[in-house]
Amino acid sequence: MPTTTDSYLLSAKYYDGAYGTMDLADAHFYVDLAKETGGPVLEIGCGTGRVLLATARKGIEIHGLDNSRPMLDVLRENAGRERAEVQSRITLHNGDMRDFRLNPTFPLVTIPFRPMQHMFTVTDQVAALRSAAAHVAEEGILAFDVFYPNFQRLPLKIGEEQLETEWSPNSETIIRRYYRKDLLDKINQSLSLTFIFRTYRNEELIREESEALKMSYYTYPHLRALFLMANLEPIAEYGSFAKTPLDNTAEEMIFLLRPKR
């Protein structure tokens, strides 16, 4: 994965519309963490700014890093519609989460909404965690989340299209996002899938676009081993953004960590 890429070209275009339809609890969790630490915050994998902008609106200085130029372009457009005082709190960086280095350290470094699941080898996973940890200030916190894998559900409906969400950018148009699982790699713990975006005007299909996506998934012992390799110590772990226990009922794995000094 090069430092600067045109990845997520379609996903960037449709990202805010698709995720704007979903009831996502993570932004409140990360904003509350930012308020507790007081900032500044470094957000790794900031995308189009769903969490970053919510943080800046609360009066907190935040730096955002992403390797996707299309995502950062959309974020810049989104930020340009914010009040001047919100814009002044935002600094953006283009870089690879495995090897970037910024001069400052931060009381809070976050990797929200699963960018770690785009790291596909142990080497890359450890490199990403070490790069994040290098930016954590003394007594600071690194926070990130990944999904809790459902091993019964993962292999289901391989090759089948499934409607995930739809939204209307105007009164005549509906965009529907489908996904299709293409390959489950149990050895390397990854899932390859395709997002399909179909645009309808007055219920007539006028455009179809698709984009491939690959995601790794983690078990709990795998993550604990990565923390040891990256010299990180967990200080809290949760099974949801409501801070429920990380147990067999969990749907998320959320960690707060500190570098071992």
Compact summary:
It is built from 7 helices and 11 strands.
Report on this structure.
The chain has 261 residues and is an alpha/beta fold. It folds into two domains: 9-149 and 218-259, Rossmann fold (3-Layer(aba) Sandwich), CATH 3.40.50.150; 161-216. 26% of the residues lie in helices and 36% in strands. The chain contains seven helices and eleven strands. The protein has helices at 9-19, 26-37, 50-56, 69-80, 84-87, 122-133, 220-229, and strands at residues 41-44, 62-66, 90-94, 106-111, 136-147, 161-170, 173-185, 190-201, 204-216, 232-238, 252-259. Strands 3-2-1-4-5-11-10 form a seven-stranded mixed beta sheet, sandwiched between helices. Helix 1 (9-19) packs across helix 4 and helix 2 runs parallel beside helix 3 (50-56).
Rg: 18 Å
Oligomer: single chain
Largest sheet properties: 7 strands, mixed
Mean pLDDT: 96
Estimate percent helicity: 25-40%
Helices and strands in order, then pairings?
Layout: H1 9-19, H2 26-37, E1 41-44, H3 50-56, E2 62-66, H4 69-80, H5 84-87, E3 90-94, E4 106-111, H6 122-133, E5 136-147, E6 161-170, E7 173-185, E8 190-201, E9 204-216, H7 220-229, E10 232-238, E11 252-259
Parallel strand pairs: 1-2, 1-4, 2-3, 4-5
Antiparallel strand pairs: 5-11, 6-7, 7-8, 8-9, 10-11
Helix pairs in contact: 1-4, 2-3
Question: Main attributes?
Answer:
single chain, 261 residues, alpha/beta, Rossmann fold, seven-stranded mixed β-sheet, 7 helices, 26% helix, 36% strand, globular
